[in-house]
Design brief:
four-stranded parallel β-sheet; single chain; globular; alpha/beta
């Protein structure tokens, strides 16, 4: 296995350790190999041929949630997310064959194919009603029939990105986002065919070529120059990085059109009714550490709800895309800390968790919390149409 890492990014780490308290896996394990500093040291040793790739190396990399909290804390500006994505790209062909088969089916055969995903969604919905799907998976109750399609406005001045799993499993969140965006006065359009998946999970898994193909399709699905609003933190972070992923001026220009839902609503303004219950905001990592727009969530909800924030400096919830599937024990241990922080923020009050990322929402719901998207919470407090 050959690591092809950006040397300037790799040597930027000075080993100060300021990232350690911000790394969710290090906080759980206390093991240097599960810290950003330890992982970078392992990458550097392999790159300089001072160490070989072995099971310990793979475990060190596989246990990274890719939350990128270390980047926010790093005084040297180490681009750890880039390093991990490039390392995963090198790891992908080295995976055990059963995992490679599963990933190929999921990433090529299901996520980018709307009809296949819709069919599997209906099968899962039947299994849910037969009580064959454990509640610990945190899946929302899926519809037996495809939800009513979303409707695009004529002559839109903004688009809503719909994506794959979120459109299949949480289309009502998109519906709420559309209603709130329209309440700001926006005319909202939907993408042309081809925007079925942004490739975020593919990038996390090291499937670089698949991610490039999907990014190219997504860009073609949004003609013009209107803003592209994204109500999934992970998808938004992926779309914003298309410039680096594709390395073309067109991709850079596309990424400059991408804006998070909460930021869009905050900037345009919307009228809501006050008096809502207590809401504790959970900052998805890719909204806080990558997009750096997490404060907009509390700002748009503040006029309608009693908004609380956690005192854990945005600690990861442990979802991490497919991380909770492949590393369930570590993922749940990280989640336990997040749940404690959310409950502490609410005090003795009954509360709702506001989460702007579908993976985080499902992972926290599996722990027994009432989790809703900011778009749904805002829709509940809109005035009469």
């Amino acid at each position: 296995m050959k690591l092809r890492l950006d040397e300037s990014e790799l040597v930027a780490c000075v080993g100060c350790g300021l990232c350690l308290p911000h790394c969710p896996t290090y906080r759980v394990t206390g093991d240097e190999l599960t810290s950003p500093r330890g992982r970078i040291a392992a990458m550097l040793a392999v790159s300089e041929n001072r160490a070989t790739v072995d099971a310990t190396f793979h475990q060190s990399m596989d246990t990274c949630i890719q939350c990128r909290a270390c980047e926010a804390a790093c005084p040297s500006g180490v681009q750890f997310g880039h390093l991990m994505e490039d390392t995963r790209r090198a790891q992908a062909p080295e995976r055990p064959w059963p995992r490679r088969v599963i990933e190929t089916i999921a990433y090529r055969g299901v996520l980018p194919r709307r009809r296949v995903l819709a069919g599997l969604t209906r099968l899962t919905a039947v299994a849910q009603r037969a009580r064959l799907v454990p509640k610990r998976f945190g899946l929302p109750l899926l519809p037996l029939r495809s939800p009513a399609p979303l409707v695009s406005d004529p002559a839109p001045d903004a688009f809503l990105f719909t994506g794959c799993v979120m459109d299949a499993w949480q289309r009502d969140t998109h519906r709420a986002a559309l209603r709130v965006m329209r309440a700001t006065g926006a005319r909202v359009g939907l993408p042309d065919p081809g925007a079925d998946c942004c490739g975020a999970l593919h990038i996390h898994a090291g499937r670089h070529d698949d991610a490039v193909r999907l990014a190219t399709r997504v860009m073609r699905a949004f003609p013009g120059t209107a803003p592209i609003v994204v109500d999934s933190a992970g998808c938004g972070a992926a779309l914003l990085d298309y410039g680096r992923l594709l390395g073309t001026p067109e991709a850079v220009a596309f990424s400059e059109r991408v804006v998070d839902f909460s930021s869009f609503v905050r900037d345009r303004g919307v009228t809501t009714r006050p008096g809502g219950p207590t809401v504790v905001v959970q900052d998805p990592c890719h909204l806080r550490h990558v997009q750096k727009t997490h404060l907009a969530v509390g700002e748009i909800l503040g006029a309608a709800y009693d908004v609380r924030v956690t005192a854990d400096d945005g600690l990861c919830c442990g979802a991490g895309g497919a991380f909770s599937v492949f590393e369930p024990d570590l993922s749940n241990a990280v989640r336990d800390r997040k749940v404690a922080a959310l409950r502490s923020a609410a005090g003795t009050d009954q509360f709702i968790v506001a989460s702007a990322n579908p993976g985080c929402a499902m992972h926290l719901a599996a722990a027994g919390l009432d989790v809703r998207h900011p778009a749904e919470l805002l829709e509940d407090r809109l005035g009469p149409d």
